[in-house]
Amino acid sequence: PAEIEAILLDHPRLFPGFRKGDVDPARIVFPPELRANQPYTDGWGCVWETPRDGMYPAVIRHALASWEAWPALRPPNPANGDGMHPLDWTAIAASVAAARRDGHLVWLSLPHGHTFLRLQDLRGYQNLVFDMADDEPRLAELIAMVEGFNAALMGRILDLQPDVVGIPEDLGMQHTPMLSPAQFRRYIKPSYQRLTEPCRRAGILIHEHCDGCVMDLAEDLVECGGNVLNLQDRVNGLDNIRRALKGRVAIDLDIDRQHVTMHGSARDIDDLIREPVEKLATPAGGLSLMYHAWYPTPARNIAAVCTAIERYCFPR
Questions:
Q1: Looking at residue 107, what DSSP letter applies?
Q2: Burial bucket for residue 306 (CB in 10 Å: 0-12, 13-18, 19+)
């Protein structure tokens, strides 16, 4: 914590308002699904577990691993939860009002993994892609159930009139999407389009987060209404991103956290930050960078990322 605090204090342009003492280990409370070796059951009945505090968990028991469980499956209640966590809509409305009063951007979001990953959580990845390949008739009913839940959440979100709505979901692996473009267009894209249509009608910006190699789906994601696409740098390739997306949508680039920033030198990290700014930024904007430091990234490398971002994104 002391090293992280020092980094935050050294980079006030990136962390305005941060003060010494704001990093207090005693105040860090992980949500239940991020507590190591403590299985957590979500609102759909899937059981999650993580081996390390703070690390995103994996489903260890799928609620619909067998279609025999289908008659008993019920969606959560969107009035009090998003499927993963409880929600207090009164508190959310108060937070939105405070943000608007203070002149901040109002950003609300569907839960991460709202559609494709939700189906995968319920069925398991192998079962799900087999369902798609086999044209399993119950899959359409399951998709309709998931979409209905998401639509109810989206209705509550739109009632609060946010500036931006997030639809975060991972669709890619290291070298390819997790499903074929044909499968995405048949089973997932229609739900995306129906969920985002009311946002488009209301003039609300849509932020589409998507991890992994997704360039085969880039055009589809744009057609789903994304004004901002959040995708990863190295697995998609900066030149591919430039050809497909520059000047068409805003690019929220997810900076590598698995290789260069974890194991590289300060020079490697400087090059990693400089290249996308040179290739993807325009005088009108259209580029933002995001970075998450993963264990066991050394503090010096986190500091090097911050230094490079300040150098290239805030030129003096």
A1: E
A2: buried
Q: What are the CA-CA distances from residue 32 to residues 124, 294, 295 (Å)?
A: 22, 19, 19
pTM (two decimals): 0.94
Residue 46 to residue 39: CA distance in whole angstroms: 10
115-141 pLDDT, tens per residue?
Answer: 999 999 999 999 999 999 999 999 999
Beta strand residue intervals within 34-148, DSSP E: 40-41, 47-49, 58-61, 107-109
| Buried-exposed string 36-54: b where 16+ CB fall within 10 A, e elsewhere | eeeebebbbbbbbbbeeee
Backbone angles phi, psi at 146, to 5 degrees: -65, -45
Closest CA to 121 of 67, 64, 81: 64
Query: How would DSSP label each residue in 45-60?
Result: S-EEE-SSTTS--EEE
DSSP label of 251: E
Query: What is the C-alpha to C-alpha distance for residues 180 and 140, in angstroms, rounded to an integer?
Result: 17
Closest CA to 272 of 254, 297, 287: 254
Burial class of residue 123 (count of CB atoms within 10 Å of its CB; 0-12, 13-18, 19+): buried
Which amino acid is present at 57? P
What does the buried/exposed string (b/e) look like for 69-100 if buried means 16 or more CB atoms within 10 Å of the residue's CB?
eeeeeeebebeebbbbeebeeeeeeeebeeee
Is the pLDDT score of 309 beyond 90? yes
Task: Tell me if 312 sits within 8 A of 271, measured CB to CB.
Answer: no
- Map residue 153 onto helix, strand or coil: helix
Note the pLDDT tens digit of each residue in 47-71: 999 999 999 999 999 999 999 999 9
Strands 47-49 and 58-61 turn out to be antiparallel
- Give the model's confidence band at 25: pLDDT under 50 very low, under 70 low, under 90 confident, else very high: confident
What tokens does 19 get? 């003060």
Q: What is the DSSP string of 281-305?
A: -BTTB-EEEE----TT--HHHHHHH
